[in-house]
Amino acid sequence: MRAVNVPMRVVLGLPVATPIGKRLMLACIVGRRSGKTYHQPMSYVRDGTALLTPGGGKWKLNLQDDKPVRLRIRGRDVSARPELVSDIDEVDRLLSVIVKANPSASSFVRVPKNPDGSFDRRGLQSALDYGFRIVRWHLDKH
């Protein structure tokens, strides 16, 4: 993923909308210990007034509810406050929203599914135990 992220950072950082910006955004996340700003490409889907991102990587450890994060979405900078969702029922619901809006998300969210297409509760709980979260981004109003 590191090799793929390099050109993605460039394209997503452009001040114009690009085709990949429909499903990907660039988050400028400040390291909690280093203070360094990291530019993290990530997928997103809209859910009402919020954005949803699957949070399986360590980058989410730098997020704090009270600290806004700058997001570059479709060539524009916006400020958003992250909410790390860990409640299994809400994660199940939100993960279904993500996969419905972006079916390719299933390929990088490694939670097993039941024959009916729902997420396996044991697999989902295991993912949560290992740190998986859904990040619900609340966009700041300007």
Q: How would you describe what is shown here?
A:
24% of the residues lie in helices and 32% in strands. It has 142 residues and is α+β, with helices and mostly antiparallel strands. It has one domain: Electron Transport, Fmn-binding Protein, Chain A (Pnp Oxidase, Chain A), CATH 2.30.110.10. It has a 7-stranded antiparallel beta sheet with strand order 2-1-5-6-7-4-3. The longest helix is centred in the middle third of the chain and has 14 residues. It is globular and about 45 Å long. 25% of the residues are buried. The mean pLDDT is 90.
Shape descriptor: globular
Number of strands: 7
Examine the coordinates and then state which fold CATH places here, giving the name of the CATH topology.
Answer: Pnp Oxidase, Chain A
Range of strand content: 25-35%
Average pLDDT for all residues:
90
- Structural class estimated from helices and strands: alpha+beta
In which order are the strands of the major sheet placed? 2-1-5-6-7-4-3
Low-confidence residue ranges: none
Provide the succession of SSEs. HEEEEEEHHE
The protein's oligomeric status is single chain
Measured between the Cα atoms of the first and last residue, the distance is 34 Å
Descriptive tags:
seven-stranded antiparallel sheet; alpha+beta; 3 helices; 24% helix
Task: Summarize the model shown.
This protein has a single domain (2-139), classed as Electron Transport, Fmn-binding Protein, Chain A (Pnp Oxidase, Chain A).
Can you lay out the helices and strands and say which pair or pack?
Blueprint: H1 2-12, E1 24-30, E2 37-43, E3 45-47, E4 50-55, E5 69-73, E6 76-85, H2 88-101, H3 121-129, E7 133-139
Antiparallel strand pairs: 1-2, 1-5, 3-4, 4-7, 5-6, 6-7
